[in-house]
Design a protein that fits this description.
The protein is mainly alpha-helical. The protein contains twelve helices and no strands. Helix 1 runs antiparallel to helix 2, helix 4 runs antiparallel to helix 5 and helix 7 runs antiparallel to helix 8. The radius of gyration is 21 Å and the shape is elongated.
Length: about 220
């Protein structure tokens, strides 16, 4: 099931979102069991950074439909914004019980585990992501980023290499792999990584600082 996307809000003025909330409150009053209206109101609350109101509205949706994936996913996100990490984790777990193959929910869960400092559980989640999504460059990149942060450079190097194999024109991946190689004192290989990225269309000028570090 695809989830409705939450608008970024950059192109909509806050006043328009506030007007939308007011309109939706009235519509919900007339049709209180309409979960689509409640999801739209929660979306507007998110765009206004009204996390508590959004959480309340998603709770209303879940009382009407306890397996509503959009409500579970975005309520988890809102709980994360408020540092309600236990509740965020519970919502991600409930979501993944229903829809275990949703990449963004696994990524959100890993992020919450990191905030909670549960290192073993984070690696378990990241390993599961790579196992479930072996063709996803982002899965390898997520694990590599965490391994880099933990100074697990050899595993990180493997994962950045895999991420680049799957997405060779991704400049961020190339830079991240080059960074690991430089930390390991392997400058020639770092430069070769940058050269390969350029051959796949990454502008050389965008990598100038990294080429300078390879000298």
């Amino acid at each position: 099931m695809l989830l409705c996307a939450v608008c970024a809000g950059a192109q909509t003025a806050p006043q328009q979102w506030r007007d939308s909330v007011s309109t939706l409150i009235e519509a919900i009053r007339q049709d209180p069991r309409n979960t689509d209206l409640r999801l739209k109101k929660a979306e507007a609350n998110i765009n206004l950074q009204q996390w508590e109101y959004a959480i309340e509205e998603y709770g209303n949706v879940l009382r009407l439909d306890d397996q509503n994936l959009a409500a579970l996913y975005f309520r988890a996100y809102c709980h994360g914004q408020l540092r309600h990490y236990d509740m965020a984790l519970a919502d991600y777990d409930a979501f993944l019980t229903i829809q275990p193959q949703y990449f963004e929910a696994h990524l959100g869960r890993a992020h919450i585990l990191q905030k909670m400092g549960r290192k073993a559980d984070i690696l378990d989640e990241l390993n599961l992501m790579v196992q479930q999504f072996p063709d996803s460059a982002d899965a390898y990149a997520a694990r590599a980023a965490y391994e880099t942060e933990q100074q697990l450079y050899e595993p990180a190097l493997f994962d950045w290499t895999e991420a680049l194999r799957l997405s060779p024109a991704q400049a961020d991946f190339a830079v991240s792999k080059a960074d690991i190689l430089l930390r390991l004192g392997r400058r020639k290989e770092a430069r070769e990584t940058l050269d390969t990225a350029v051959s796949h269309g990454v502008p050389r000028g965008a990598l100038k600082d990294w080429y300078d570090r390879c000298k």
